[in-house]
Amino acid sequence: MYSNSHLSQKIGDIAEKDYVTLSEDTLVGEAAKVMKDKEVLSLLVTSKNSNEPIGILTERDMLYRVLAENKGPFKVTLKKIMSSPLITVAEGESVKNAVLLMRSKHIRRLAVKNAAGITGLVTLMSIVGNVPSDKVDLAEVELPSNAIERDTTKMICPYCQSQFKDKSEMSKHIDRIHISGGLLEGDMR
Fold first, then answer.
1. 159 close to 171: Cβ distance less than 8 angstroms
2. Same domain (yes/no): 29, 93
């Protein structure tokens, strides 16, 4: 279970400072190789005219926007498939506010910034991984205020609106589908 001290911790304190950037004119095939070599699942995309990040690219973007659409990875640039504009959170914001922002935008990654620019990346998984507890009940922080319906027998997933009979089932669903990449493995439950 999340503690109030963890939820109020500054998001900048847990952001990954060592992130990868590539120019928007980089080919998807080249980006895939960099991501494999650096062992990262996402990277920030910069404008070709500056080093300022303008978007984000994930392995899911490559899978769905290139491979699933039968486009050539050595013909498509990052600019064509990146998620843009880049959604950011101020490094002084709380972990709770960062999770709420991710939930409201239906995303799992945020760029963390200060007045000078981007300082790191945070993922929903990195937030869960930084919880000082052996048993993480992700549903506790993921639940929107309206998640419990009037009859209180159904819980609603904050990402896909699927209904569950209890918090435990919903937490398993969130872990399997929305965090661990279940959709990439064909799991549509």
1. no
2. yes
Residue 170 amino acid letter = M
Rg (CA), the chain: 18
> What is the maximum span of the chain, computed from C-alpha positions, in angstroms?
55
What's the pLDDT tens digit per position in 61-109? 999 999 999 999 999 999 999 999 999 999 999 999 999 999 999 899 9
Q: How many domains does the chain have?
A: 2
Q: What are phi and psi of 122, to 5 degrees?
A: -135, 140
Is 119 in the same domain as 144?
Answer: no
Q: Which two tokens stand for residue 134?
A: 């052996």
Whole-angstrom Cα distance, residue 53 to residue 75? 22
Q: What is the pLDDT of residues 135-183, one digit of tens each?
A: 444 444 444 444 433 344 567 776 676 777 877 787 777 777 766 654 4
Q: Are residues 168 and 108 in the same domain?
A: no
Looking at the fold, whether 115 and 152 belong to one and the same domain comes out as no
